[in-house]
Design a protein that fits this description.
The protein is α/β, with parallel strands linked by helices. 40% of the residues lie in helices and 16% in strands. The strands form three sheets. A seven-stranded mixed sheet has the order 4-10-9-8-7-5-6, with helices on both faces. Strands 1-2-3-12 form a four-stranded mixed sheet. It has a three-stranded antiparallel sheet with strand order 11-14-13. The protein is globular and about 55 Å long. The site of pyridoxal-5'-phosphate (PLP) has 13 residues, from helix 5.
């Protein structure tokens, strides 16, 4: 087979930079633990915040699916829109009190929503640290794209003032809990600015769904702004322990996306099984108050022990700087029985390589004690 020397060279360059990525074989999952290379490690790198991936009972879900097909067999607009879609979308509509539309995944949802709503005559404003799927969606749309410094809403307003009037539609995009920094957006200025400058607000609640809000609906629920967010994105592969994503929006926007979002239209529908898991998780979600409270306690306590600024999201970033340092800390923690791979550019900006410690309600505070001691030791040695 033909080789591609320039690709081999690029891979060699990644290896030299310490940025070569490799898949790790996760042999087994058991509560908050994973087995890697035959060793049991506390998994600090999942988004399974409520511990649902190993809590929802497969046998029960399978029993409900007795006569369901294994796959949807077609796109939703053809014959793939099976019974389970209606079940889950109705459940979402009842929870959020607005229509919902399921997408194949969070990545494809952002891609499809942004590129359907915005085109060359439009403008997008997004926080500097938003997820790759948002950046890719903005690029694909062909709209003008401005990024404001992280959480700086004065800078956002300056951009809106300067550029908004030259475009037809405007879309402001933020995550509610930031995936790599674990901090929260301020919804008050976002909602106020989107009103004042006649923009739509797309809020990606991927890391807040399940974690915040009385019924686990996210930060918009927690801050009583559910009805103000034009497009609320939730992912089912994180706290819900399933796969897929949804957007909660108006009926007009839902219809528009069904007609225009290419990542919704041109792909096979999710299998019934996946939606049955999502339904199970969503049914359970409002009740999981104890898990949400425990998660907050774990987060506050870990942050305090590591000397980080106080917050209560389940994502605790330990920024060490260079890629080598992040890799070295990850190796030391692995030696102690923790699975926390180093997060390096391009996932995070250069010079901010880190360990992204993500907590789950299946963990206990004692499990984290050796971790705290080792990180403190590492930071002291490298300060
Ligand atoms: C903020 C954010 N949005 C979207 C996604 C993509 O979601 P999915 O994994 O369902 O494709 C992620 C996943 O990491 C994310 O962190």
């Amino acid at each position: 087979m033909k080789d591609w020397p320039e690709l081999t060279q690029e891979l060699a360059q990644l290896k030299r930079q310490g940025r070569f990525r490799q898949l790790k074989n996760i042999e087994k999952k058991e509560g908050p633990y994973v087995y890697v290379g035959g060793r049991r490690l506390l998994n600090l790198s999942s988004n399974d915040y409520l511990g649902l991936t190993t809590r929802l009972r497969l046998e029960e879900i399978l029993a409900e699916l007795a006569s369901a097909p294994t796959g949807a067999g077609a796109a939703r607009l053809l014959s793939g829109n099976h019974f389970w879609y209606e079940q889950v979308e109705e459940l979402l509509a009842a929870l959020f009190k607005r229509p919902a539309l399921i997408f194949p995944s969070g990545y494809t949802a952002n891609l499809g929503i942004i590129s359907a709503l915005c085109g060359r005559k439009d403008v997008i404003f997004a926080d500097k640290l938003v997820h790759a799927s948002i950046i890719d969606g903005a690029r694909l749309s062909g709209a003008a794209f401005f990024r404001y410094p992280h959480l700086n809403y004065e800078a956002l307003e300056e951009l809106l003032k300067k550029h908004r009037f030259r475009y037809r539609r405007a879309l402001i995009i933020s995550e509610s809990v930031f995936s790599m920094d674990g901090d929260k957006a301020q919804l008050a200025p976002l909602c106020e600015l989107k009103e004042r400058y006649e923009a739509f607000l797309l809020l990606d609640e991927a890391h807040a769904l399940g974690v915040f809000g009385e019924r686990g609906l996210g930060l918009s629920e927690e801050e009583e702004r559910l009805s103000e967010v034009d497009l609320l994105l939730g992912t089912c592969g994180k706290a819900l322990g399933s796969y897929g994503a949804f957007v909660v929006t108006s009926q007009t926007l839902k219809d528009y996306l069904i007609n225009k979002a290419r990542s919704f239209i041109f792909t096979t529908a999710l299998p019934p099984f996946v939606l049955a898991v999502t339904k199970r998780a969503l049914t359970l979600l409002p009740e999981l108050k104890w898990e949400r409270e425990k998660l907050r306690r774990l987060s506050r306590s870990l942050r305090a022990k590591l000397g980080l600024s106080p917050d209560d999201t389940p994502i605790v970033p330990v920024v060490v700087g260079s890629d080598e340092q992040a890799l070295s800390l990850a190796r030391r923690l692995e030696g102690l029985g923790y699975f926390a791979p180093a997060i390096r550019p391009p996932t995070v900006p250069p010079g901010t390589a880190r360990l992204r410690i993500s907590l789950t309600a299946a963990m206990e505070e004692e499990m984290l004690a050796p971790l705290v001691a080792e990180i403190r030791r590492f930071l002291a040695e490298n300060s």
